[in-house]
Automatic annotation (TrEMBL):
It comes from the Bacteria. InterPro entries: MOC1-like, RNaseH-like_sf, RNaseH_sf. It comes from Gemmobacter caeni. One of its GO terms (molecular function) is crossover junction DNA endonuclease activity. This is Uncharacterized protein. PANTHER family: HOLLIDAY JUNCTION RESOLVASE MOC1, CHLOROPLASTIC-RELATED.
């Protein structure tokens, strides 16, 4: 199963997890088009990411109290573009709230900045080959997208795929298989 997770934002991050090799993950940022408040992820790039994808995970987020109307509009354009491009490829969408995937990753209850740092640290532990990307503070979205894909893998259909011990901290225990 191929899972693609999106962390929408100023720079929309994505993670691609193939459940046959859960110890590897591909991460990146979606190309952007437009400018100003019309700046948004490129739907063509998103559609290309959907080729061969079984499920798309999209973080279900809303406006923060400190955001202005223009920022909320831009964020809405971002999420809408992702939803439209994924839907056009007929890929099932699984929305997930930040609270749900963060709780499953044991990041719940942390402050905003603290949770971002913890997400990068956990992603580095799980996928050490991506350490150069995850160690950069501004790349917290890459780590969060990766952890959303992992959340779906562990709580969704992927939960029945046996681990071979390659993924640190998850080998052989049912406790680590909980979503």
């Amino acid at each position: 199963m191929r899972i693609v997770a999106f962390d929408p934002g100023r720079a929309t991050s994505f993670a691609i997890l193939n459940t046959e090799t859960p110890h590897r993950i591909e991460v990146g940022e979606v190309d952007l088009i437009g400018s100003g408040r019309l700046r948004r992820p490129c739907p063509v790039h998103i559609a290309e990411l959907m080729i061969g994808t079984d499920c798309a995970i999209i973080e279900e987020v809303g406006a923060r109290p400190d955001q202005g109307a223009s920022a909320v509009f831009t964020f809405g354009m971002c999420v809408g573009t992702i939803l439209g491009a994924v839907s056009a490829r007929h890929v099932p969408i699984e929305p997930v709230s930040p609270q749900r995937w963060k709780a499953a990753s044991r990041l719940g209850g942390l402050g905003r900045d603290e949770a971002k740092d913890a997400a990068r640290a956990l992603a580095t532990e799980l996928w050490p080959d991506q350490k150069p990307l995850f160690r950069v503070k501004k790349n917290h979205g890459l780590a969060e997208a990766a952890l959303m894909a992992r959340w779906y893998f562990l709580s969704g259909p992927g939960r029945d795929v046996p681990f071979d011990g390659d993924l640190p901290g998850t080998a052989g225990t049912d406790q680590n298989r909980q979503g």
